[in-house]
Amino acid sequence: xxxxxxxxxxxxxxxxxxxxxxxxxxxxxxxxxxxxxxxxxxxxxxxxxxxxxxxxxxxxxxxxxxxxxxxxxxxxxxxxxxxxxxxxxxxxxxxxxxxxxxxxxxxxxxxxxxxxxxxx
Length: 120
Known about the structure:
- The chain is an alpha/beta fold and 120 residues long.
- The chain has one domain: Rossmann fold.
- The chain contains 4 helices and 5 strands, in the order E-H-E-H-E-H-E-E-H.
- The chain has helices spanning 12-24, 35-41, 61-71, 105-117, and strands spanning 4-8, 28-32, 48-52, 77-81, 96-100.
- Strands 2-1-3-4-5 form a 5-stranded parallel sheet, with helices on both faces.
- Helix 3 links the parallel strand 3 (48-52) and strand 4.
- Helix 1 crosses helix 4 and helix 2 packs parallel to helix 3.
């Protein structure tokens, strides 16, 4: 059974690019365009959260990751941002990785494969 990635990205072009790459690499994917939408998709079938930091709406990716960590303490989290650096964010949740945009989708797939290989 393939690992399931919850992709949270409010930019439709970026979302389409990373989702296409993940599907091509054999991942199962769920997509959300906001933190609220992401929380509705969060269940035990999700193996990893891949979230943009700067999301539209009142809850950003950092706050989303904190809520996800509260609900799923074991879930790996990958943050991505093109306008924020990790040192500006303060402490990130445990078991997390920060990626700067633009990122190479192949490298993202390799990272997610490594992070989910322990679980599968």
